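Question (not urgent): is this output format expected?
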Amino acid sequence: MDIFGKALLGYYNGQTDTPLKVLRDDGWTDEHSPALYFQEEPFAFEAPALRLIDGPTLDLGCGAGRHLRWLGAHGHAAFGLDSSDGALAVCRAQGLTGVGAFDALSDQSPELPFVPAHITLFGNNIGIGGSFEGSATLLHRLREICAEDGQLLLTGINVRGTDNPRHLAYHARNLDEGRRRGELKLRLSYEGEIGPEFGWFHPEPHEIEELAALSGWTVIRLEPEGGFFWASLRAR
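Got this back:
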């Protein structure tokens, strides 16, 4: 059930007033416009990381292709992977043909047109792993497909930077039950349709260091940007 892809397709086809909802397992709901995934310019906290790119780049979790468009406009060879058929359809409808279907949690290796010098996990997509352990596995697999001196660029959310009692209670419950603070159980909803539950992980900055040590990367830079952060990791 491709709720995310349905929302992107709906927005691309002119249905601009229908929100995408994120439902957490404690009952908390966030909703936002799919317009977020079509922004022309990078978000402020992404821009410094994007400026470090100087070669062929794999964008994992490419969504509607906003980073692919930026990379192409700046002369970089780029290829996008996503598990959402709807997201890939939106990319292709915009002329972004360098995309392919890939489940980052599978044991398969993606078919790529080049060995990436850079891999991007923007949009907090390190969370695809679903948990600390899953994200470590994800980073290990990305280490295997990048160039020997390759760079991994990612963005994240500072999950401690909140005073919302609902979020603080959720963090406390996770810690009490032996999970990491930023491990979430979510569902997506669009036009009243609700998808299956999936895990998502928002690592804290110090956990990026832990994940890198476990998966063949070295953190070169990790910079806070408001309530977010970005990091540059090098293959070792």
